Amino acid sequence: MAQIRHIAIQTQDEEATARFYIENFGLTQVRKLDSERTAGYFLTDGNINLAILRFKNDVVAGAERGKGWSGIHHIGFQVDSLEETAEKLAASGARPRDDINAALGLHHGAARAQGNVEVRYSGPDNVNFDISETGWLGTPSNKIGR
Questions:
Q1: Per residue in 68-123, pLDDT tens?
Q2: Residue 84's domain is classified under what CATH number?
Q3: Which distant-in-sequence residues (6+ apart) come within 8 Å of 22 by Cβ?
Q4: Which domain holds residue 97?
């Protein structure tokens, strides 16, 4: 069974947004991000990874929103099998976000070194979501980066 293990918030001020969730809800910082594509933080409550992200280009953010948009950006599901889940998603009409996957260097079987997103999809109502076998930092079932 898939489990929600990740929620990503896109922001224009990653420092203030991370501080808000840490100070008000007691979340713990597990990683600071700063690459050519994204700046931000991974926070956790011990069960779910909350990513606070400021995207540095429109392709990585998703062209429909762009880097200047703020709000809940996507959610992530940890699954038992990327391949089985991909088959189910294809049959249901969900489509891989090839644009974002290419910009992030993601594809089936290419788990990120930090143990996070493996493939991004778009589902009903254009809601973006990640699927991962390895899980996310700060979650109890994370298989990488413990």
A1: 999 999 998 888 888 899 899 899 888 899 998 888 887 655 554 455 668 899 88
A2: 3.10.180.10
A3: 28, 29, 43
A4: 3-132
